[in-house]
């Protein structure tokens, strides 16, 4: 009787703690959304920002955030996919594998500001890329690699070993078995990890302050020369992202309507991250159902 009562008390305490945590997080999200959503409009999402004037938007910062995300994933995903396949399918138990896994754990535990300072010293100064999208994307690649690599490895390991044996029994080589059977079967989990890591990158600020810069030059969407700093596709131009813009507004105080712009930008950022998270769940479930029903 006492054991049952103790179990009920312990269970109730755990539920209460979980409820308090969920309530705190929900309150923060609702506070940001309630303050920011009224300031969101089409003009706010498309117009460039303004300093010392009222009525600026976040159009360039929003474009920079998505473009920087695209360049980062273009660099980091192939590396993470290759590393995940090696660790899951080919790596032996030796010191090389231990060093790789230790390096991944160390990278995953680094604060983003440390990654930003590393990117500043290496890519901005040493490689002379300057404050640019390229510097920011390379820094975020180091920030993103541990999460993506671990996700790919776990998704591949979740595939049952009998599917590997079936591929080998049909006469496929080990590489063909991995690429034609294991990787397609693990695609839903890999896709979920990619979308979740995209949300993490989209909301990153500290690493980009020191690498991608804190200015958002006007973009000429009629100019598609990748070497021109006014071209939207140039990777050598400075690119203030949405998260950096929010930090800049609240630290510099040069906008008369800075509180409203910051609230609106914060709401847009929260909504985008929520869409990434919900989109990851929906895409993973839909792809899994499609593959299992095929």
Structure at a glance:
This protein is an all-alpha fold and 294 residues long. The protein contains 11 helices and no strands.
What general outline do the C-alpha atoms trace?
globular
Structural class: mainly alpha
Fraction of residues in β-strands:
under 5%
In CATH, what is the class of the largest domain?
Mainly Alpha
**What portion of residues is helical?**
over 70%
The string of secondary-structure elements, in order, is HHHHHHHHHHH
For the termini, the CA-CA separation is: 52 Å
SS element count, helices: 11
How many strands appear in the DSSP assignment? Answer: 0
Rg result: 23 Å
Name of the CATH homologous superfamily of the largest domain: MetI-like
CATH architecture of the largest domain: Orthogonal Bundle
Major beta sheet summary: none
Pfam families: BPD_transp_1
Protein name: Phosphate transport system permease protein PstA
GO biological process, one term: phosphate ion transmembrane transport
GO molecular function: phosphate transmembrane transporter activity
Walk me through this protein's architecture.
It contains 11 helices and no strands. By secondary structure, the protein is mostly helical. It folds into 2 domains: 1-39; 41-293, MetI-like (MetI-like fold, Orthogonal Bundle), CATH 1.10.3720. Helix 10 packs antiparallel against helix 11. The model has no long low-confidence stretch (mean pLDDT 87).
Task: Give me the secondary-structure topology.
Blueprint: H1 2-36, H2 42-46, H3 59-90, H4 95-109, H5 112-126, H6 133-157, H7 161-169, H8 174-202, H9 206-209, H10 242-252, H11 258-293
Helix pairs in contact: 1-11, 3-6, 3-8, 4-6, 5-6, 6-8, 7-8, 8-11, 10-11
InterPro entries: MetI-like, MetI-like_sf, Phosphate_PstA
GO molecular function, one term: phosphate transmembrane transporter activity
Family: Belongs to the binding-protein-dependent transport system permease family. CysTW subfamily.
């Amino acid at each position: 009787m006492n054991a049952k009562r103790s179990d009920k008390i312990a269970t109730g305490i755990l539920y209460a703690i979980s409820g308090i945590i969920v309530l705190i997080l929900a309150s923060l999200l609702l506070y940001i959304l309630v303050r920011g959503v009224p300031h969101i409009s089409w003009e706010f999402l498309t117009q460039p920002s303004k300093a010392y004037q009222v009525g600026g938007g976040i159009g360039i910062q929003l474009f920079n955030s998505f473009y920087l995300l695209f360049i980062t994933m273009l660099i980091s995903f192939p590396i993470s996919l290759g590393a995940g396949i090696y660790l899951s399918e080919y790596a032996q138990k030796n010191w090389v594998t231990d060093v790789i896994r230790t390096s991944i754990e160390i990278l995953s535990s680094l604060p983003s500001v440390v990654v930003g300072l590393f990117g500043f010293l290496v890519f901005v100064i040493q490689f002379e890329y300057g404050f640019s999208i390229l510097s920011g994307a390379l820094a975020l690649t180091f920030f993103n690699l541990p999460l993506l690599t671990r996700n790919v490895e776990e998704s591949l390991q979740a595939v049952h070993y009998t599917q590997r044996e079936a591929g080998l029994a049909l006469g496929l080589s080990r590489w063909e078995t991995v690429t034609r059977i294991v990787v397609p079967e693990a695609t839903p989990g890999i896709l979920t990890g990619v979308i979740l890591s995209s949300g993490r990158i989209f909301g990153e600020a500290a690493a980009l302050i020191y690498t991608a810069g804190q200015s958002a030059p006007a973009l000429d969407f009629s100019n598609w020369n990748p070497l021109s700093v006014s071209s939207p596709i140039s990777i050598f131009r400075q690119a203030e992202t949405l998260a950096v813009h929010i930090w800049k507004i609240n630290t510099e105080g040069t906008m008369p309507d800075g509180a409203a712009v910051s609230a609106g930008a914060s709401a847009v950022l929260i909504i985008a991250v929520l869409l990434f998270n919900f989109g990851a769940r929906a895409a993973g479930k839909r792809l899994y159902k499609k593959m299992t029903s095929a």
